Each structure stands twice: as C-alpha cells, then as structure tokens.
Amino acid sequence: MITTYIEITPFDVVKYEVDKLSGYLQVDRPQRTSSSPPTLYGFIPRTYCGDRVRDLCPGAEAGDRDPMDVCVISERPIDRADILLTARVVGGLQMIDDGEADDKIVAVLAKDPIWADVEDLVELPTALIDRLHHYFQTYKLHSEPHVATTIEKRYGREHAYRVIEAAMDDYNERFGRS
User: Fold this and answer.
1) pTM of the predicted model, to two decimals?
2) DSSP state, residue 122
3) Residue ranges per domain, the chain?
4) Tell me: the pLDDT tens digits for 46-98?
5) 9 phi-psi bin (left φ>0, alpha ψ -120 to 50, beta other)
6) CATH number of 2-172
7) pLDDT of the residue at 143
8) Which helix (H) or strand (E) holds 161?
C-alpha cells in the first residue's frame, strides 16, 4: 500500500499542483482541451524522479525532477482534491515528457468494493487504461511551447514497484533521510 496526495479529480478542468515552496495547492493552468483526467491524479509523497527513475526509462535524458505521479482508480466518485488516500499499486505507464522520464503509476483505492481485488494492470479493463494513455498523450497538445509526450509502454505491478523504489532512493539522495 502507498499513501498518495491527490491534486486533480476527474471533474477538474483546471490543472492544480502543489507549490513546492509553500506546500499549498495552486492553479497550474486551465486544461486547454476538453480532455480531463479519467482517474484521480496526484503524486506519491517523499519520491523524486531523478537519475534512478531515468535509468528505468530507456530514451529519457533525465528524470522530471518532480514527485512520482500516480493515477488512482476508485469505483465511487471522489470530487475533491487536496486529500491523502491509501492505494494499492497495480502497474504504470512509462512516459517521456519533453525528453524526461515522467512515469504514471496506476493504483486502485484501498478497500474499494469493486477494484480492491485487482493486483496487476492487466486485470483492469483495457478501455480504462486506453483512456489514461490517451489523456497523457494529448493533455499537453496545445501547450506553449508545444511539448512532446510519448507513452513508451504499459507495465505491471512488479516494474511499478521498481520505479517507485528508484523514486524513493532519488528522493533520499537529494533531500536526505528523515
């Protein structure tokens, strides 16, 4: 199980992000397309995408220097952000965003009555993963300047844990253990 911080819900047409200096949730930008995230979207606290995460993403020049992104699937609508929740990792999408490793971990809400028994990405409906794939391929289509994003592959739980462990190690190297 992992703790996640949720920045955006499937109902948001504005992208929010935690301000690293203040710790408060701030408006990053309005979504420029009609697309909205198909799941809860946030990050795994105390992670950082640096060299170790980059090394797990062939073709990436660097990590994106942000916490590890996570998409959390819930059967019930959760319509507010700025919350913590517990989830179980099932897989991920290996994404390169403007040359940087920017993986999207996929998880299910802990104790969810529908998704609680899912253990690996392949157990989720293909249409749901296709929606996530499409969202991340297109959510920066109209950004200024234009940023190229590619989904290199989809992966299961075991690789997702390696990516998270690398992000935790990158965090500890950069910010120290506490």
Assistant:
1) 0.93
2) G
3) 2-172
4) 999 999 999 999 999 999 999 999 999 999 999 999 999 999 999 999 999 99
5) beta
6) 3.90.80.10
7) 63
8) helix 157-175
